Amino acid sequence: MTLEYVLKQHGLTPGVDVEVYDHIQFNLMAGAFEGGLGDYTTLFEPTASLFQKEGKGYIVSSIGLSSGEVPYTTFMVSQERIKNEPEFVEAFVRAIYRAQKWVQTASNSEIAKAMLPFFPDADEATLELVAQSYRESDAWMTDPVMTEDSFKRLQDIIESSGELKARLELTDVVDNSFAIKVMKDIG
């Protein structure tokens, strides 16, 4: 969806000016591209960097840089859990915020070492490049508060794809109160 949104923002119409294969499961995109399907593909890190390192392709652009801030990774919890276990929710948000603060101050090497167990196919040097790339593109949020602007852009992207039936207010679906409290507590 985000790629199509970016293409449209640059005056290209998917299906007219450019063909976008949207029938391939995202985790299969690398294999499909490697097998000869398409001229470009979108890949998450560290897959993109590994692909480049192995000579299978080149990183030419960042969809995230082109789209503007999008709340890509979000965490959801039921209203029941918020009501019955607010301490759990607060502890979870506190852990996220501490991780966000750590990423802002840690070196690329420290971040790579922390990521290594989660990406067994990647080496530390590649993950260090990924950390550097994410830092340079300002991909990591500095706090857990979802902004009106990023929520609006997310809805713009979904609406542009034809998948959004009705727009919502941020406060209808997002509770930033835990994030705000944790940020005040931690500083």
Key attributes of the depicted protein:
single chain; 187 residues; D-Maltodextrin-Binding Protein, domain 2; 11 helices; 0% strand
The major sheet is characterized as: none
Radius of gyration: 19 Å
Low-confidence stretches are: none
Portion of residues in helices?
40-55%
Strand proportion, as a percent range, falls in under 5%
Number of strands: 0
Judging from the principal axes of the Cα atoms, what is the shape?
Answer: globular
Number of separate domains: 1
Would you write up a description of this structure?
This protein is mostly helical and 187 residues long. The chain has a single domain, classed as D-Maltodextrin-Binding Protein, domain 2. It contains 11 helices and no strands. Helix 6 crosses helix 11 and helix 7 packs across helix 8. The longest helix is centred in the middle third of the chain and has 20 residues. The protein is globular. The two termini are 35 Å apart. The model has no long low-confidence stretch (mean pLDDT 95).
Q: What's the topology here?
A:
Blueprint: H1 2-9, H2 29-34, H3 47-53, H4 63-67, H5 79-84, H6 86-105, H7 108-115, H8 124-136, H9 148-160, H10 170-173, H11 177-186
